[in-house]
Design goal:
0% strand, 78% helix, 198 residues, mainly alpha
């Protein structure tokens, strides 16, 4: 088989000097010969891209995967086994596997997104329940506010619902600041206990 490849390459070389076969090039690449890889690249790039494009049907992705395959061939040239087939067969097998892996990866990603989307759709936000809960909480606060003394309730409402500072609340109610602070502290403790807040 190698002799046949040499004979074919001699037909294409007008000088009569036999061009190296892909098998020869892979052996040189396995020894780290970059020039041999350049030659091997020229021989294999087109067929690899063709196989990948048939699987992926996307030019940009096919170019990317073909480059990945060629880099893999550079790194794994020492693993090429001539008794298992030609270099072209080996390269195209690697290319086909890489392309299929890319399709599977894309499909897995799409499946995950689809599952996540369906999961979100199965548990929609319940606006009515949220409104009812908020209304019940407001009602519970109202009930607990009624349980405060008038002075505590006034102080809490001015400070926490109207946004006045403690000093402003003291001025509005005509009471010393220390008294207002005590009313607020006592009122908040009673609210906390009434609302069941830990």
């Amino acid at each position: 088989m190698r002799d046949r490849a040499r004979a074919v390459s001699q037909l294409h070389d007008p000088g009569g000097v036999a061009a190296p076969t892909p098998e020869d090039l892979v052996q040189r690449v396995a020894r780290g010969d970059e020039a041999a890889f350049g030659q091997l690249y020229e021989v294999l790039a087109g067929p690899i891209y063709g196989v990948v494009l048939r699987v992926l049907r996307d030019q940009a992705q096919s170019e990317e995967v073909a480059q990945e395959v060629l880099v893999e061939l550079w790194r794994t040239a020492t693993r090429y086994a001539p008794d298992k087939g030609s270099v072209l067969t080996w390269a195209l097998t690697v290319a086909h596997r890489r392309a299929v892996d890319r399709v599977r990866s894309a499909q897995s990603s799409a499946d995950r997104e689809d599952r996540a989307g369906r999961l979100g759709a199965e548990r929609p936000f319940d606006e009515v329940a949220e409104q009812v809960t908020a209304r019940l909480e407001r009602e519970q606060v109202r009930v607990c506010l009624k349980a405060l003394t008038d002075l505590q309730r006034e102080a809490v409402l001015l400070a926490y619902y109207r946004g006045y500072t403690y000093r402003e609340v003291a001025e509005l109610l005509g009471s010393p600041l220390g008294t207002i602070k005590t009313r607020l502290r006592d009122g908040l403790i009673r609210l906390r206990d009434c609302l069941g807040v830990a």
